[in-house]
Amino acid sequence: MTSLDKHQALNEQLQDCLALCAAGNSDAFAKLYTLTASKFLAILLKMIPNEAECADVLQDAYLSIWHAAHRYDPAKGKPFTWMLVITRNKALDRLRKQSRDRAVETLSTDLVATLKDESNSPHDDMQVTMLRDLLVPHISKLKPHVAKAVIMSAIEGSSAREIGEHFGVSTNTAKSWIRRGLQRVRTDFERSPAQDRLYKLIN
């Protein structure tokens, strides 16, 4: 049997399994997992070089496949490809989350470094930490370069020209980033309970 024949035979089995999964057949789901898990794990490991992370992603992917089995349409594509798309999307979601988490961590560190002063009292340091916890969730929703521009402008006191030079963009572009970023943070902040907490903190 050629590799093409094997792939065709696999797709035929997967199609049957998905049809049974759609009807709630757990045995068919177990078979579907056995037929594909090692293949998908190998693909995931090329995207996320962490076996534990990949195992989590794989579990999420198969849970989605189980719940979405009734939506699989053989007329629109092969079952292996359909399942692979779901698995890859889960991996991409995980990678995006990791990227956001790293950005939030960096942003948090930057804010503390900017606000903290060697002459601060323990009370001042506590206020800095609280201020960071209040602002980071809102600023972190911005694109990383816009968030950094907002911090440089509003907290560090850098000019639009200096920010433009830092990023290698024009002064007008830097101004646009700052304006849009501050508008977004202000709107998001005004919709949250954090506004009252910040008022109590600074008064």
Automatic annotation (TrEMBL):
Keywords: Sigma factor, Transcription, Transcription regulation
Top-level lineage group: Bacteria
InterPro entries according to UniProt: RNA_pol_sigma-70-like, RNA_pol_sigma-70_dom, RNA_pol_sigma70_r2, RNA_pol_sigma70_r4_t2, RNA_pol_sigma_r2, RNA_pol_sigma_r3/r4-like, WH-like_DNA-bd_sf
Gene3D superfamilies from the UniProt entry: 1.10.1740.10, Winged helix-like DNA-binding domain superfamily/Winged helix DNA-binding domain
Domain RNA polymerase sigma factor 70 region 4 type residue range list: 139-184
Coiled coil regions, renumbered to chain: none
SUPFAM superfamilies, sorted: Sigma2 domain of RNA polymerase sigma factors, Sigma3 and sigma4 domains of RNA polymerase sigma factors
RNA polymerase sigma-70 region domain location: 37-100
Thylakoid recorded as keyword: no
Transcription regulation found in the keyword field: yes
Family, per entry: Belongs to the sigma-70 factor family. ECF subfamily.
Record-given protein name: RNA polymerase sigma factor
Lineage of producing organism: Bacteria, Pseudomonadati, Pseudomonadota, Alphaproteobacteria, Maricaulales
Gene: rpoE
